[in-house]
Amino acid sequence: xxxxxxxxxxxxxxxxxxxxxxxxxxxxxxxxxxxxxxxxxxxxxxxxxxxxxxxxxxxxxxxxxxxxxxxxxxxxxxxxxxxxxxxxxxxxxxxxxxxxxxxxxxxxxxxxxxxxxxxxxxxxxxxxxxxxxxxxxxxxxxxxxxxxxxxxxxxxxxxxxxxxxxxxxxxxxxxxxxxxxxxxxxxxxxxxxxxxxxxxxxxxxxxxxxxxxxxxxxxxxxxxxxxxxxxxxxxxxxxxxxxxxxxxxxxxxxxxxxxxxxxxxxxxxxxxxxxxxxxxxxxxxxxxxxxxxxxxxxxxxxxxxxxxxxxxxxxxxxxxxxxxxxxxxxxxxxxxxxxxxxxx
Length: 344
Description:
Elements: H1 3-28, E1 35-50, E2 53-67, H2 84-112, E3 114-117, E4 123-128, H3 133-136, E5 144-148, E6 151-152, H4 156-165, E7 171-177, E8 180-181, E9 185-187, E10 202-205, E11 208-211, H5 215-241, H6 252-265, H7 267-285, H8 293-305, H9 313-343
Antiparallel strand pairs: 1-2, 3-11, 4-5, 4-10, 5-6, 5-7, 7-8, 7-9
Helix pairs in contact: 1-2, 1-6, 1-7, 2-5, 2-7, 2-8, 5-7, 6-7
């Protein structure tokens, strides 16, 4: 799948599923929904109408929204006029749909066959960097190194040592793919590779085997995998807040690069990346920041803590409006940084 097509499919799926969660939950609760939008205004086109809800395409391609009067409780049929439980369920439905999507995607991977590390002699290729000698030679994630320079590979350390011993020199490499040995290829390890890339441009670890599971086993494994990704993201955020690790954020350009690379590696890698991004969207949308679902849930929580007394709608609306402006500015800055890294 080409890079632009894979990006449109992945990004569109994540947004659609998230906003669909809000839409379905709102309609199920009898909340009036005015607009179901892809991207942020100004409006580009109205795609149609469903149940009194305008479906629109907007100019700023950084997300999506469901318009349902979230701030003013005096608007008839609006979300703001409903009870705390209904508001909390509708606000969290989008993130929960992303969590469910991740479980489905990871479960599908285990059904069709997931590449699984196995404890045996050898070395598996987990990542192939773009524009690297490995990519030029046709090596792919999921391949297993069989030999380098005529020597059978028994461990990752041995593979790394052989690569380092042949820097700048053409070397014959044999890999297996899906259990079958491929024809030898010539690769020249780089003497001075780019930052965060090795001489060949690969990431090596235990050998990989494709293992498939029945649905009744795959679904629990999909749930476990999703939970591990949630935990990993939580620990990464906690470390970033504590100043123990750098915090990196990718915008549409960065996501495009990742999806294009995953699409080149195969449909399994693209499905896995989509599951990872869906978990990221689940966690980030529940952060207690204005304009995000988590920020709106904070106001519902404050109302409960204050014994049912709400923050004045004009003040809450102002907070979310400022938060939205800052969010758009952040996305513009992140996109600029992504483009700068790409040019660099």
